Amino acid sequence: MNNDDAESILTNEFQSEFNCPNFNASEEYPSIYNTEDRMSLYTQGPNSIYTPGGNLSISENKKKSKSRSKLIDKMLKEEAKKKKESEPDLKILILGSSNSGKSTLLKQMRQNFSKKYTMEELDYFHVVIIENVITIMKLLVEGLELLGLDKKLDENYQNDAAKIKYFQWDKTIFVDKEITEIIIRLWNFKEVKECCNRKNELSTLFIQDTAKYFMDSASRIFDPIFSPTNQDVICCRKPTYDIKETRLLIKDCGNLLVYDVGGQKSLRQYWVPYFSDVHGIIFLVDMSSYDMMMEEDSETNRMMDSLNLFESITKNKLLEVAQFILFLNKVDLFEEKLKKSKIVDHFSDFIGDQLSDKVAKKYFQKKFEERAGRMLLSIQFTNSTDSRLMKKVIVGCMIIIRTVALKSIGVIS
Ligand SMILES: Nc1nc2c(ncn2[C@@H]2O[C@H](COP(=O)(O)OP(=O)(O)O)[C@@H](O)[C@H]2O)c(=O)[nH]1
Ligand SMILES: [Mg+2]
């Protein structure tokens, strides 16, 4: 803020304090160029000066301008203090492909280090969760047909499945009772559960990773007194299309400004303006995506896309001073997947026993290290839905980013 800004704030404050209208020389106050006023200036003698509100002697005027300048100084100091308080100690960007867990990491930061969700936020998540449950069941019904599991089922199933298939949700939390009962009933069919377990084979449907969690919770979610828990919020899925900014205060790490971005290919161009003055980048990878194609580009393997994106981001000149942390995320799903889907079918240079998840983890870790255009500050294997684990991981990562940032400006050696 410069002196002009301070002046204008001051003027506005004075105006509101005295309830006076904006100064308009021609209407409310006599103009200095008005003949009558010019005359009064002369008649009041050399020690008087014109002011719209009255006449003051030079000494009185000096006093007034001194106190005015004191007030401006005070305001400038207060503004500088406010600015300092609002300036983050660390600016962090969360990057990665779509569905890698970026927004989930931000939710973990928020839940662990900031205030509770407001009623409005809980209402928003309530709608997202209902939407998730309905979408999952619609996709499972479609999946059953693709896997041929529906043929085994009786007329009761067929009637319920048809109703869900053609159900149009009006985007409110008040879902028709008949529909909620059908969803709960359908989930009780062992074939529907089998379909959910085999969602790997239905990669074109993109059934969300937390499908089982929400289906198991359907009756709780459709209860009229339902209110989302923190874990419900962590598990729900709503793709990000814009850039979200969140402020957090973490003990021993200071004020954080964290940006969460949309990871789809078409949205990556919007990341660049946020690259300046970044202290740390947390890059997330969906480890379980090694056998999946991208939602927005059905010819590209998701893990391959993550590797290419990681390489280009770590080599980006605008991010030269930023510190990189790599989260090899969704390890829970990765470990499950290793039992049924061969890495070598998608990455021909993989050798070793993939049933040993250590070997498989090491293989992908090395691939990312080879692609990194710089040294990485840390590599973590994470499950972003695990709140206890994430709290520790987040604090640890922020402390090392902060330490490096302080070292780089010579505050610590
Ligand atoms: N099982 C499991 N699910 C995860 C993990 N991380 C994120 N998810 C889920 O994956 C989905 C997509 O995550 P999201 O954070 O929206 O991904 P983004 O597109 O990168 O922001 C959500 O339903 C999350 O609950 C994880 O480590 N394990
Ligand atoms: Mg997101």
From TrEMBL:
Q: Does the keyword GTP-binding apply?
A: yes
For this chain's UniProt record, which GO biological process terms are given? adenylate cyclase-modulating G protein-coupled receptor signaling pathway
Concerning InterPro entries, the annotation shows:
Gprotein_alpha_su (IPR001019), GproteinA_insert (IPR011025), P-loop_NTPase (IPR027417)
Which residues bind Mg(2+) per the record?
103, 240
Q: Which GO terms describe its cellular component?
A: cytoplasm; heterotrimeric G-protein complex
Organism domain of life: Eukaryota
Question: What PROSITE patterns does the annotation carry?
Answer: ARF (PS51417), G_ALPHA (PS51882)
Protein keywords: GTP-binding, Magnesium, Metal-binding, Nucleotide-binding, Transducer
- Per the UniProt entry, the signal peptide is none
UniProt-annotated binding residues for GTP: 260-264, 329-332
Q: Which GO terms describe its molecular function?
A: G protein-coupled receptor binding; G-protein beta/gamma-subunit complex binding; GTP binding; GTPase activity; metal ion binding
Q: Name one Pfam family in it.
A: G-alpha
Write the protein's name: Guanine nucleotide-binding protein G(O) subunit alpha
Annotated organism of origin: Clydaea vesicula
